[in-house]
Amino acid sequence: MYSFDVHTVYSMCVSMYSAVWSREETTERNYYTRYHNMSEVRENTHTQHTHTQRMSECTYLLLVVVLQIGLSSTGRKKAIWMDCGIHAREWIAPAFCQYFVREVTSKTDTKVNEMMKNLDFYITPVLNVDGYIYSWHNESTRLWRKSRSPGTGGCTCYGTDLNRNFYANWGMVGVSTDCCSQTYCGTKALSESEARAVTDMLGKMREDVLAFLTIHSYSQLILVPYGHPNISAPNYDELMEVGLGAAKAIKAVHGMDYTVGTSPDILYANSGSSRDFARLIGIPLSFTFELRDKGEHGFELPEDQIQPTCEEAYAGAHHIITYAHDKAFYSYAATVTATLWTTLLAAWVSSATLL
After folding, report:
1. Is residue 22 in some structural domain?
2. Number of domains present in the structure of the chain
3. Does the keyword Transmembrane helix apply (predicted)?
4. Predicted structure pTM score
């Protein structure tokens, strides 16, 4: 993992990403209703980090930005992880991560303020940076999915599916060993630097992470672990209950239906996903969001659907995060109170017996 001064990394990115598919200039007013290339994403992230007091740190994994967002605290805080853009062509995902950052750092929502005191958000607007840049190169590369790592062993094809490269049941189902395939899982688990960076960072903080959210498109789904059809999460019932609550919150915004379940049950079997990795290392609440739509536009979701998609997805994420927060802090407080009363009652009974 490499860390740089934010201004140094930003200037490196400006020069590196200058030759991308050009877009019209955007303003703050319409920024969150447009898709943005990597240079614009970096500039927006840099601006948010500079001007928002709630952002306490900005870390760089290779050239992947991870924003740490929360209110200052002297104690150890819990965490929520969210990443977007693991698949390059799913442009609505990075759009949502940027929208989510804007919402949690600008709202006067009492619940958000409360949660900011107790936990930090770790947000990765674009995880697959090289792939995302390539998807903006021209119209012929728009639907690029994988990373851009060069092939090995004489293979002339580029890229690995980063969401098949984590060590959770790696290489078992729903993957390809053909390096030219869209679902190529790599030469081994964690062969890709992006997957290793996430694994290293989450491995160090896993005891504090309450929920893991990875944002994708499309199909309007909320997926719970595991992608392998013969493996179930130990808290499957809880995951389904929370996921169904998130789907209900989403539907209340614009009436969109999201289906909840494991990937084998409602989509297809797969292994090596970041969602399954998070659950495997002990993060209790791990979900994949597959945002709009259900196939009419697919990965090329029109820009007039960005804002409504982000609004409903925010409601779903807010539900999950609120549940995770309240379970950690209110359940703990209730347990402590119950233990205290039990101790006091036992002491009173003992005294009464002596009398």
Report:
1. no
2. 1
3. yes
4. 0.85
